[in-house]
Amino acid sequence: MKRVTNAALGVVSSMLAAAKSHPRSAALLILAAACLVAGVAVKAATVPGARASARTLAAQQLQIEQNPLPADLAPVQLSEAPGTVRGLFSLSHWPFWPPLPPGCSSEYPGSDFYFSASLNALFVDDRQNEVLAMAAEASIPPLPDGTNSFGTGEGSGTDFGPLIDPNDHTNLYLIILSATNGMVQLVLHNTSNAVPYEVISSVSLTNRLTNWTSEGIWVGSSTNTPANVAIGLRTNRLFFRAHAWGGQFDHGVPTNGQLFLQANTNLIYVVTNGVTTNLTAFYSNWFMLNPPLYQVNLGYGANDAGFTNAWIQPFPAQGIKKLVGFSTTCSNLCLCTNPIESSLDVSGWPALQDLECWQCASGGGLYHVNVTNCPNLVRVCVESCGLWWSMDFTGCPKIADIRGASNANMHGVVIPSDCKSAVWHLCIHDDTGFDDKGSDLTGFPAMRQLWAWNDGFTHPLNYPALGTPTKLESVQAYRNAIGYADFSGQTNLQLLEIYDGQALTNLNMSGCSSLGLVKLYNEKLSQGAVDHVLTNLVLTGITSTNYLTNTAGVQFTAYVHIEQNSAPSSNGLAAITMLKDRGWTVYYDEPPVVPNTNCVTGTAAIWFTNTSSTVRMQVQVSTNYNAVTWYLGDGTKICGSFDINVAVLPGSSNAVVVDPPSALLAFGVSGPNCVAGTGSQLTKLSSVWGLTNYPNLQQLYLYGTDLSYVSLAKCTNLTAIALTGTSPASTNVISDWFTDLLAAQTNTTIANVKWFGCDYTDAKYFYYPATPGFNTNAANALVPLHDPIGWNFWHPTP
After folding, report:
1. How far apart are CA 495 and CA 532, in angstroms?
2. 12-45, pLDDT tens digit by residue?
3. Residues 6+ apart with CB under 8 A from 258
């Protein structure tokens, strides 16, 4: 490294010292100073007597009341000053300030200088200099003798003696040993054991003290404490001060590679560079990590299934509330589930590749994470942290894996165009607070996984393949308001989910030859768009019933759900038939129903007795042309309707007839709710009879009707039963439900059934009331009904 040449090393001893009441360990009243100046030209020559006599000023011209200046002060050009002068004094603070090294005169450009032959010292007229403000901030304490004189003599205090008193073993002072190989070697004298000291610096002595910057913190020994500081680009001049540190970074964060941690406890464990150690606090609840630091793990749970799980070992969180510092070497920083408060700043860390902050919200919220200008940053995980400020990746050209989901108040994500090329995973779902709902989520040539659901985005998703090989594998962008999407030619795309947005009117998925999991329901797709989806899925040729295995090892069958859009045309229906033949599960809107208005008669009826004055009932049948007739107790007959909503005298005996009986798939009440266990029904019944007349009945929905009797005998094809909210007349009634169901069913096949107006279910569910309970026979029937027949049972808490 380059050696600093022509350096004049100056030391100011005992610049500030503690008062009698404040020993060396006093935290805030201990201050020392020294300066390093390079290339100062001070001519080594004596001042000619005649010239000096001619230019001598009378002492009274520059007197300070009760502190007379030397009587022999004479104006002098720096080039004419002797090379052996003892120091540089301040006129403004004579005699209270000790001398600076003569080379520091360059800090006072344009000022007048004076020479005192009696003291062999220079004086600078700095009375109008900004350094006055700096001095006021320094809060200089008195010396142990109660004065502000730094001299060793008596009286005037102008005999400053040597700049360093080797016999001073009380007051803190700072010296510079050397400046070589890009480092300044400092020594803090008279430090106290275990007391932390901060070294601060400035390239200009006239800078206000608040503008001096921190070089680092060193824990003191019982005598002297070495402190090495990097010079960096500051090779011309550099000034140092030192003081006992009081727990605040008033001069900014040190940039020497130290990291400082504030925790909830006084003992933590940390994995640094692959080695686990325990640390005790060096001040209050503050801990220090010293460089070089390459990997720092203070908490990692491997919770988000990221690729970093391959080499980062899980480690419990250590209760870290704050992390401050700057590292030029750290590549991995893990802080998962620590209660980080307010903010975390790693901006400009040149070696940082991975930042792990999963669920750091327990401290009240990690509102801001600053990762700008990290040129090697590859992955950031800040999921569920309570972020408010936008995540900004400006200056991060290698960013590839962004995980910022579940920050409901986060204002946005900023990824400049020159930082998009490597992004393959963008996970920002459930970030509902984004300011710009029109954010463009395109322009990522390496994108494989775009997970941005429930954000309210409106911008089209344009991801046509721009070359080979294609990258896109998974798009989950549901519960947004995206109107158009183009994934044409994305031959690796396997999963596409854009649903529940009620905005998508068209999309292009031509050539998506690997697509086998598609959810597009509750959008605004036209019939042509629906046909496009279905016919292109046929072209994939996918037939496997175990199409895809997720990260949890769960296998999925080939699946498309395109309901609550337009119904498919005959071409779409033909495609559906082909997909089902290949093992696909297909949910779609049936073409518009054309009821058969013919009235039918017969004894194969389902009878029901109402106790409410309002009767709302419904059926589902297998084709559009099955005849349905409702017979009400008052003699009214309603033909060709699949549901009714009528006023009927309570206690009436009513019936519904479906022709042919094999066409009836579902029977029950209709109302404001379709999911068992929620809401209340307007229709109340006392009994239902005749289910045995309809052998293909799959669903029975009588939830919330206060029903006292119904029989499930011979219901061989039931797959969904909702009887919660009924009032069986006895334990025998409810017990017969289970024993009759077991006697009727041996089939373990689970049909694709759908609750009235609700989503499909792929399992058998039986919702029953908790009271009045059932007998032993029913309890014994539950076991085979669950396994092997496949029923799942649920009842509310009594």
Report:
1. 17
2. 222 322 222 223 322 222 334 455 543 222 222 2
3. 216, 217, 288, 289, 290, 291, 325
